[in-house]
Amino acid sequence: MKTYLPGKDHVKPLGRTCFVDNTLWMAFSGTGAAFEFRGNRAAVTLLADDSVSVADNRENWARVAVFVNGSRVVDAMMDEARKEFVIVDGGQVQEYHVEIVKLSETAMSTVGIREIAVDAEDGIHPAAEKAHFIEIVGDSITCGYGVDDEVAEHSFVTGTEDVTRAYAYRTAKALDVDYSLVSISGYGIISGYVDAGQPPKPEQTIPQYYEKLGFSYGRYLGRTPSEIPWDFRRQPELVVINLGTNDDSYTQDFPDRQEAYRAAYVDFLRQVRSRNPGAKILCVLGIMGDRLYPMVEKAVSDYRNETGDADIDSMKFDVQLEADGYVANWHPTAVTHGKAAEKLTRKIRELMGWR
User: Fold this and answer.
1) How confident is the model at residue 355 (pLDDT cuts 50, 70, 90)?
2) Taking the CB of residue 239, how many other CB atoms lie within 10 A of it?
3) Are residues 18 and 145 in the same domain?
4) What pTM was computed for the model?
5) CATH of residue 346
């Protein structure tokens, strides 16, 4: 088999990735690479970041999947520094479409695609770009937190996160568009998640990392993703913002705190617009509670009135139902994610005029 590096000559990056030291670095949920080849054998080699060297760290290892012609052929935890996965093994020579996807979130661990080996007639080629490209900004819901653990009282582990079962990824697939997901569990606009009566956590906010490759406690090749600026070279046609669930744990029913959230939300809209001048913006909230949604609507209205920017809208998700169950830490089930994806898909088709 011949070996190829995962640069843009050979693969299409999925989401925010960085080609560094001949390795494609994946941080945010849903990041990865897509490529095609005609042949009958293939293997991929992945590298873990330094979180794998921490003793008894299985709750934080990166989870990755490989899809071949739409079927999941690898679902693994990066419990070793270097792992090779055979993804096509003999048989008839045919066309293959391969997607490597990071299932778990950026904060706990990152992973790199080191090389791709194939037995193919003319090597590997990047998968074609889709007709449309969207970005979705969010928190644990967007990450697919706990979706594979149907015990609500259980806590977080990366092994039960699967972004491909969450509403954002499923929306992108339903629309057949390229996507970028910018999401970190527990993060918000003005505060990360806090227990009742606790002070805010301004260090756990998305705006400070929106212009970065990601955020992680793990280091890869001596760097963290927050040290690498994102270049915004490929511009999304739509940016969806789903932030406020964690802020609500702090703001609750305090009017001054809710006002601080609204004001910071307007600031974030300005930031998003500055980096995506031609995109429509859609602000959503509600899957795990809709108390702050009126502040989202007000932020959208205030931003529109202040700037004259009409390319912005809002939508309230339906709050998850007890009848549809809960997963780890009372997060939404795959059923709830499916309903949210259907509603968001309809809204995007209407907003963008896509069919």
Assistant:
1) confident
2) 23
3) no
4) 0.97
5) 3.40.50.1110
